[in-house]
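User: What would this chain look like folded?
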Amino acid sequence: MDIARMIDHTLLKPDATLKQIEQLCFEGRKYNFASVCMNPVWVKFCKEILTGSGIKICTVSGFPLGASTTAVKAKEAETGIEDGVDEIDMVMNVGAFKSGDLKLVEEDIRAVRNAIGKNKILKVIIECGLLTTGEKTRATEIVKSCGADFVKTNTGFGYGGATVEDVKHLREIAGKDMGVKASGGIRDFQTAKSLIEAGANRIGTSSGVKIVEEARNQMAGT
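Assistant: Here's the prediction, encoded as structure tokens.
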């Protein structure tokens, strides 16, 4: 298992500096991660650094609350594509979902899907830490019906982290045709490995370097 190719190496902190984003891209190249993920303001800078590297660029839409308007989410995603991203991680409107306004939730996701086109990857964060089991089921069904490529567990911004139980549940609902991304609180190889074994095929983490180094050490028997 090449775990690096399953990791979105992430830096979404509000105080991230230019130097830290540059380091994120350097590590993306060095470890051959699936992607590097940063806030939209850094996309053009990262594109310049990573052009020709084969490392995908990922950014966010409606992050971290999911409470932006549909038009804002779609425009943010569209701008990201124009600036050079390959993947968009958007946050579902959790408040609308829990209010029963599933039409708005679907409109949000479809608007972003349409804004970025079918050739770019769309991941939808449903924020599992705020949902009941039944809500996780329904949310995943909606994400799948709207043509997203991945359902994602959490933002990692204070509402719980990825769990094996959630990943197993989301994988069951998603089936084989949609990806499951685990994110939130994934800081070591064993945790990442357990989530992959549970059904995740992408891991979002700011600890990508540590995870890959731990995996290599285990393979080397050290």
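The chain is about 45% helix and 15% strand. If you want, I can go into more detail on any region.
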